[in-house]
Q: What sequence folds into this?
């Protein structure tokens, strides 16, 4: 199934090295990550080596090489969020979930990730759960936010 | 040209149908900053309430006018009345607001921010708030007032007339001459004179030539470009088309960061509308000039904001910077002459070509001309976006427009994210000036000030900046890869009170190595926060060492 979807997705892109990053973004979005099989498939399609594809894949922080959890919680690394104590919020989520930023919970429910600034600093400190933005978060909100998504 | 006159006439009809509707207009700020504060829920509530109360009202959306701290922001224009803005209108407040303003005729005192034009109703003037006093709004003039998703709004408010003027009555050399006379310097951080860049690219041999709009806005805490892209996207596109005509390019790219999905969506739509109306594509507005623009999205990389790294990224390579010989204007994207400019630079171009370079150069300081858009964030009361002339004192922006710190006092600012160094509040009299900030060891950079208050430890802040740069190093050169990590760890040790006074010259030495020997701007600017921190707050460094305490944290 995944292979058929991937082939369909690839067939829409021009065979040109410049298509590599757009393809990796699309695959990452469609499947949550870029698997080793997908790397081989993309390499073959663009007449590149798997190494060349993996070199680009591993460079960008939004592209994943491992499947994420069901929900991804992202913490902004920008200075406004830093000044307003994002580290305490990260720790609260880490303690609640028994995992660390950069990892996925053992039950596969949540992945914690750092993310770059999206420029909504008026709402700092901010986190995302998938595409939902939570602004002006406090450490004690962690449990409540997690409960919302554990339902 | 005839093609443009027709387009303008049609746009005016569309605009008047919206602006002179005879119904009440309710306009919602729906940029990313508004959405983060719940603007979409407010919008939903407005629509539901209009239907429930059976109000004769037209509900519209717009970009951000700059008052991010007052989001969600709602404007109401009653027939024949002024535009009145209301702040912090969360969804639960919508029924009360609409009831009071539209039914009982009250002013909604607890939410009203002011009327955009005076009408004798005794409402405060919106633009007389401290946030706006001293601003010179050119790039921000339409932001928050027009619908960014509607090309007709842009055209009816003066848009694309300058492109028409350039294509119909100026040759490319004349366009470049005006841009050179304006003395505008690139707004992305490097501050290279735009006119010279275009001239060199035009003169360079090679075809095709490329125009790239750098919309990566990688410096965290900076959101000036996002505000312009989400509020007035066609201004940037118009600037790019004029650039393509001046340089002789038929292909352009906008490289936008992965973290800006809404700006990307708005741009894609704007490009499509421009294509449909003959503003992009073959024979633009019936002229001989052809040009089109593609969007390329980043995927989470700070260094991809560096010009050569960005070109590598578009080519499908790792976003690693290269040495600048040859320069991109000679051999850039795919080895062809390429002119890359920042979002804000492009948005300035229609103003320059319309009013002339001399007009533009009449505002600003000796070597920094025009206005600059700055985002305000961090420990500041009024987080948002302001546009001020160069030469405005830094303190005026931070303390008067920004309102200072919510608790305690502002100790300093990070200009341009973790790469820009720190500027102490003692230097708030300094005019905002590219070369003046350079002399302080900081930089105007891409246009953001992140304020920090008196409880912020300068060593910890410098460590944060070094850690950010270490994480984002592309790791090509060992100076930056190892140097930025060493700097981070060094600052950690000093913060923990483990240093001696002999460490301070050593720290300075490490900073010098990074600054002088790194391959690209990332490594060269990585020590800025540590160096300026040491320069402006030396006593705080010494207290950590000799007294084993942090004066900011009192521990």
A:
């Amino acid at each position: 199934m995944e292979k058929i979807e991937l082939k369909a997705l690839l067939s829409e892109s021009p065979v040109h090295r410049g298509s590599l990053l757009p393809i990796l973004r699309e695959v990452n979005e469609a499947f949550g990550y870029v698997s080793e099989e997908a790397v081989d498939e993309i390499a073959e399609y663009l007449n590149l080596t798997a190494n060349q594809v993996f070199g680009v894949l591993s460079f960008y922080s939004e592209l994943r090489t491992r499947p994420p959890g069901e929900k991804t919680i992202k913490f902004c690394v920008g200075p406004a969020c830093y000044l307003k104590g994002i580290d305490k919020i990260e720790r609260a989520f880490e303690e609640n979930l028994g995992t660390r930023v950069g990892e996925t919970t053992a039950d596969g429910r949540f992945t914690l990730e750092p993310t770059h600034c999206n420029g909504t600093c008026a709402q700092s400190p901010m986190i995302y759960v998938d595409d939902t933005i939570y602004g002006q978060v406090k450490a004690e909100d962690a449990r409540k936010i997690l409960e919302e998504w554990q339902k | 040209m005839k093609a443009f006159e027709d387009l303008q006439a049609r746009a005016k009809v569309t605009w008047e149908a919206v602006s002179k509707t005879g119904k009440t207009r309710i306009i919602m700020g729906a940029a990313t900053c508004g959405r983060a504060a719940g603007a979409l829920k407010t919008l939903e509530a407005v629509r539901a309430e209009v239907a429930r109360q059976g109000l004769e009202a037209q509900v519209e959306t717009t970009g951000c006018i700059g008052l991010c701290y007052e989001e969600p922001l709602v404007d109401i224009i009653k027939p024949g009345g002024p535009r009145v803005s209301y702040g912090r209108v969360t969804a639960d407040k919508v029924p009360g607001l609409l009831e009071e303003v539209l039914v009982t005729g009250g002013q909604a005192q607890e939410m009203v921010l002011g009327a955009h034009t005076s009408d004798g109703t005794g409402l405060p003037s919106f633009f007389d708030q401290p946030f706006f006093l001293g601003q010179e709004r050119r790039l921000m003039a339409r932001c928050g007032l027009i619908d960014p998703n509607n090309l007709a709004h842009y055209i009816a408010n003066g848009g694309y007339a300058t492109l028409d003027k350039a294509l119909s009555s100026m040759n490319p050399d004349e366009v470049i001459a005006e841009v050179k006379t304006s003395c505008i310097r690139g707004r992305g951080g490097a501050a290279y004179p735009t006119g010279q860049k275009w001239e060199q690219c035009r003169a360079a041999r090679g075809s095709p030539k490329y125009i790239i709009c750098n919309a990566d806005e990688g410096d965290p805490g900076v959101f000036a470009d996002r505000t312009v892209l989400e509020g007035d996207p066609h201004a940037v596109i118009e600037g790019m088309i004029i650039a393509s005509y001046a340089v002789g390019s038929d292909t352009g790219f906008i490289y936008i960061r992965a973290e800006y999905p809404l700006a990307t969506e708005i741009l894609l739509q704007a490009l499509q509308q421009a294509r449909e109306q003959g503003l992009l594509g073959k024979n633009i507005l019936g002229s001989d000039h052809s040009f089109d623009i593609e969007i390329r999205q980043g995927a989470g990389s700070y260094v991809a904001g560096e010009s050569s790294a960005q070109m590598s990224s578009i080519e499908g390579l790792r976003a690693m910077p290269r040495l600048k010989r040859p320069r991109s204007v000679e051999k850039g994207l795919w080895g062809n002459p390429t002119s890359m400019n920042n979002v804000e630079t492009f948005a300035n171009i229609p103003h320059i070509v319309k009013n002339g370079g001399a007009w533009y150069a009449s505002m600003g300081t000796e070597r920094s001309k025009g206005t600059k858009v700055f985002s305000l964030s961090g420990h500041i009361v009024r987080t948002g976006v302001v546009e001020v002339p160069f030469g405005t004192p830094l303190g005026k922006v931070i303390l008067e427009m920004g309102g200072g710190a919510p608790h305690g006092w502002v100790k300093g600012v990070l200009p341009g994210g973790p790469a820009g160094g720190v500027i102490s509040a003692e230097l708030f009299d300094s005019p905002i000036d590219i070369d003046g900030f350079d002399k302080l060891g900081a930089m105007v950079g891409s246009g953001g000030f992140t304020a920090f208050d008196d409880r912020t430890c300068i060593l910890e802040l410098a460590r944060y900046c070094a850690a950010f740069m270490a994480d984002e190093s592309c790791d090509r050169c060992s100076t930056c890869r190892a140097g930025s990590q060493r700097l981070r760890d060094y600052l950690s040790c000093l913060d923990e009170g483990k240093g001696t006074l002999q460490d301070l010259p050593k720290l300075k030495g490490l900073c010098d190595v990074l600054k002088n020997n790194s391959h690209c701007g990332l490594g060269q600017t990585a020590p800025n926060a540590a160096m300026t921190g040491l320069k402006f707050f030396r006593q705080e460094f010494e207290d950590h060492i000799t007294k084993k305490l942090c004066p900011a944290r009192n521990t």
Notes: The two ends of chain A are 29 Å apart (CA to CA). Helices of chain A lie at 2-11, 20-31, 36-46, 50-57, 79-83, 86-97, 142-150.
